[in-house]
Amino acid sequence: MKNGLVVRGQTGPSPTISVDGVQTASANLPSLPTGYGSAEASIHSHPTTVQVVGKGATAQLYPQSASSPSTTDNTTFTQFKFKVIVGPLGPLKGALYNQAKDTMTIPNRTNGLAIYDRNTNPIIELKKKIVENIIGK
Questions:
Q1: What is the pLDDT of residues 72-81, one digit of tens each?
Q2: pLDDT 10s digits, 25-66
Q3: What are the tens digits of pLDDT across the range 80-121?
Q4: How much is the pTM?
Q5: The organism sits in which domain of life (predicted)?
Q6: Of 25, 36, 64, 70, which is most buried, counting CB atoms within 10 Å of its CB?
Q7: Alpha-carbon distance 97 to 91, whole Å?
């Protein structure tokens, strides 16, 4: 909020996969207190683990990244001056399926946050360690 008040929403449901293979998650914003008509920023997280649908060599991977706002982010959060998305940074690279062991190896990505303007233009990305240094943790 413009006066520094923080309004916390509820954790939303896990993303779902549509029939045409598109991953989506709903956005449920909290109601603002009476008398407060505007908010300065929205802060939310993207899943930190990769959603895997299916098994074996045909498994489909659905990674999310704070570096890539979703379609829902683009349409839902235009009312805010800033959007902060917390989660893994960057694209998923190097996932490997081991046929002999029937296992999928999914590499870790660095968690952090990405800040965008109301038009979802990127402003800055910060790795978790940098954020911890800034807030003195």
A1: 888 777 778 8
A2: 777 776 666 666 667 788 888 888 899 988 888 888 989 999
A3: 889 999 999 999 998 898 889 888 899 999 999 999 998 899
A4: 0.80
A5: Bacteria
A6: 64
A7: 18
Residue whose tokens read 């990505």: 109
Which pairs with CB-CB distance under 8 Å and at least 24 residues apart come from 118-125? 118/77, 118/78, 118/79, 118/80, 118/81, 118/82, 118/83, 119/78, 120/69, 120/73, 120/74, 120/77, 120/83, 122/67, 123/82, 125/66, 125/67, 125/89
Please state, in angstroms and rounded to a whole number, the distance separating the CA atoms of residues 63 and 13.
16
SS3 84: strand
Domain boundaries, the chain: 41-135
How many residues appear in the chain? 137
CA distance 43 to 29: 10
